[in-house]
Automatic annotation (TrEMBL):
Species lineage: Bacteria, Pseudomonadati, Pseudomonadota, Gammaproteobacteria, Thiotrichales
Name of the protein described by the UniProt record: Deacetylase
Gene Ontology biological process terms in this record: epigenetic regulation of gene expression
UniProt cross-references to CDD domains, sorted A to Z: HDAC_classII_2 (cd11599)
Family from the record: Belongs to the histone deacetylase family.
InterPro entries: HDACs, His_deacetylse_dom, His_deacetylse_dom_sf, Ureohydrolase_dom_sf
Residue ranges of domain Histone deacetylase in the record: 20-304
Length: 308
């Protein structure tokens, strides 16, 4: 069974301004690398649908959704925070990014695919219930988890987040939702400056010091994520797949490499095979150095496609 691969041209039109690191060329760099690695010919393409308002209100306040969707200024922009710029193409792109997760959950839970990857932007894991933050508008992975719970009655959905930044938006949304386990590794202290002291039995936060490399990352995953995931026995695993902890990505000071992303993906698949019938959906978060981003996604997908 091929993996489902989501993309949409409208995700490329969202533009937060010249020099902004969260840019359309990220998506293209990934596609180019997947093509060069001959992985793209093995996936099944899907154009991401638009998420509906009802799907978004499961995880976002109505008033906040209106702020995004009612923005109709054709030429102006609004800074929702110093790094997060709402412009005319943002609402459609954000709806596609969230909609990809919705359809991915549908396909995987209806047994059409075991695995899906969403090559979308804007990313989502900093988006809070009531506001945009850190390049994120709608919390895509949270929209997917809520959909799996509400529509399919799942009781245990795991979200694994290896982006270099803490998935604070995801934590904000699910802090009091024990049907979701969030496992997050992140550089600390670092943006968004939280997460190190808010652990619970289903929020498994693992702060890592600047300079941490693959060995210590793996150790942290084996010590904190894996035992908790075994205890939780997830019926579905979602991945907030950010690749900005890569050594070549100057967004951060962690020192991961492609083989670390391949390794953690394999660990996730072991849990998925044991408890979740192999069901895994990965959605793009960060990753800003185009070469290492492309190579890291290729390494991640190769494992998800059971080729490595
Ligand atoms: Zn990040």
């Amino acid at each position: 069974m091929p993996i489902a691969y989501f993309h949409h041209p409208e995700c490329l039109l969202h533009d937060m301004g010249k020099g902004h690191p969260e840019r359309a060329s990220r998506i293209n760099a990934i596609e180019d690398q997947l093509q060069a690695s001959r992985l793209l010919e093995l996936v099944r393409y899907y154009e991401a649908p638009l998420a509906t308002r009802a799907q978004l209100t499961r995880v976002h306040d109505s008033e906040y959704i209106d702020t995004i969707l009612n923005f109709t200024d054709k030429s102006g922009v609004v800074y929702l925070d110093p790094d997060t710029v709402l412009m005319s193409a943002t609402p459609q792109a954000a709806l596609r990014a969230a909609g990809a997760m919705i359809q991915a959950v549908d396909l995987v839970l209806m047994d059409q695919h075991k695995v899906a990857f969403c090559n979308i932007r804007p990313p989502g894991h900093h988006a809070l219930r009531h506001r945009a933050m850190g390049f994120c508008f709608f919390n895509n992975v949270a929209v997917g988890a809520a959909h799996a719970i509400e529509k399919y009655g799942l009781n245990r959905v795991a979200i694994v987040d290896f982006d270099v930044h803490h998935g604070n938006g995801t934590e904000d949304i699910f802090a009091h939702e024990p049907r979701v386990m969030l496992c997050s590794t992140f550089q600390h202290p670092f943006y968004p400056y939280c997460g190190a002291d808010t652990m619970s039995n289903h929020i498994i936060n693992v702060p890592l010091a600047a300079g941490t490399g693959g060995d210590k990352f793996r150790e942290a995953v084996l010590m904190h994520w894996i035992p908790n995931l075994y205890k939780f026995a997830p019926q579905l695993i979602l991945i907030s797949a950010g690749f900005d902890a890569h050594a070549e990505d100057d967004m951060s000071q962690l020192r991961l490499r492609e083989n670390d992303y391949a390794w953690v993906t394999r660990e996730i698949l072991v849990i998925a095979d044991k408890y979740a019938q192999g069901r895994v959906i990965s959605t793009l978060e960060g990753g800003y150095e185009l070469q290492s981003l492309g190579r890291s996604v290729a390494a991640h997908l190769k494992v998800l496609m059971r080729m490595d």
